[in-house]
Amino acid sequence: MKITADVLESASTLKRPTHESRDAFLKRVSHVSLVNKGIGVMENLGLCRNLSVLYLYDNKITHITGLSGCLNLSQLYLQNNQIEEIEGLDGGLHALRILHLHGNSIQYIRGLHNLPSLEHLKLDRQRLSPGQSLEFSQDEFSVPLAASLKRLSLEGNKINDIGPIVTLRGLEELDLSDNRIDDAESVEWMVASLPHLHTLSLSSNPVVVKQPAKLRQRIIVAGLALETLNGKPIPENERVFASNFQAAQARRHRVQNSKANSSSDLQTEESLLDPALAAADEPKPVPHLPPYATQYRDLILQMKGMADLERVKEQAKVKKARPVVGRAGIRKRSEVLADLAASAAENVQPL
């Protein structure tokens, strides 16, 4: 289907009086809905000079065109088309506040720098080739977009790098669910860099699957304005608990580091005073042993001790029972054997 004057008139929410010309009528049309009409080309939209809201989703549009005369356009719905590039939005669309482009085939976020009033951008679930992901073009999120954009939805786009989002200082709602974000520190840094962010969704990301409770605490502490995380509200008592818990962890780490530094300094001083101690601290070479030697070392040592004990007993049986003379006088052979057995038992290593 082609967009003609007749089509625009029928797609309007108004009804043209019989005495009014079509051109005059179209100039005051503010809302046009052409949903699921098989449209492939955006054309003749400039006839509607007062156009404010345009619904063109669920069509076959491949390029964004024909909007240069729509200076009052504030809402544009182009989801579920075949668009591959964000283009055609630099023709004076300074009033555009809402832009829906989800369900297309866009790989790079660009072409938005001339939209100073854009507040809501929706780019969920782009239909990309295997191995591709939605990417941010360099410096795309710069002034004035960084200050105007308040709601950003990027669900299901295989995104891993979220660094460019930190420039969107005015962001209030952010949906990054079902992506490939796996770095907790980058998430914490992003949240801390967005002072007005009150709603965040990170569900179905690897970083959430790893340690959901611990990550939630870190995000709550980093996001001072955050009110809802992954669809769950953040009550005040949870924020207080998370803050106290992190503060306690920080104190414990400081104490541990202080003790480690003190111990290291003491060892250094002792090494300087005693060269022999410094030499003793040097790592000793470990002799090479076959695999089985370490595995059965304790058993071998115990068997060796038992063999020594048996050898002492055998030697005692061979000798004849006669008194043993020493400085302390005459001792019985049983006493001598007991001493020998105790001495051998001391050499037995436990398992």
Written description of the protein model:
- The protein has helices at residues 5-11, 22-27, 145-148, 184-192, 206-210, 212-222, 236-273, 275-281, 291-295, 297-318, 333-346, and strands at residues 31-33, 53-55, 75-77, 98-100, 108-109, 120-122, 135-136, 151-153, 173-175, 199-201, 228-229, 232-233, 324-326, 329-331.
- With 351 residues, the chain is of the alpha/beta class.
- The strands form three sheets. The chain has a ten-stranded mixed sheet.
- Strand 13 and strand 14 (329-331) form a beta hairpin.
- The model is unreliable at 286-296 (pLDDT under 50).
Strand content: 5-15%
Number of helices: 11
Largest sheet: 10 strands, mixed
SSE succession: HHEEEEEEEHEEHEHHEEHHHHEEH
Kindly state the mean pLDDT as a whole number? 84
CATH classification class of the largest domain: Alpha Beta
Spatial shape: elongated
- What's the CATH H-level homologous superfamily of the largest domain? Ribonuclease Inhibitor
CATH architecture of the largest domain: Alpha-Beta Horseshoe
CATH topology of the largest domain: Leucine-rich repeat, LRR (right-handed beta-alpha superhelix)
Structural domain count = 2
Number of strands: 14
State the helical fraction.
Answer: 25-40%
Please give the alpha-carbon distance between the first and last residues: 87 Å
Helix/sheet category: alpha/beta
Low-confidence stretches: 286-296
- What strand line-up does the widest sheet have? 1-2-3-4-6-8-9-10-11-12
Based on CA atoms alone, the radius of gyration comes out at 40 Å
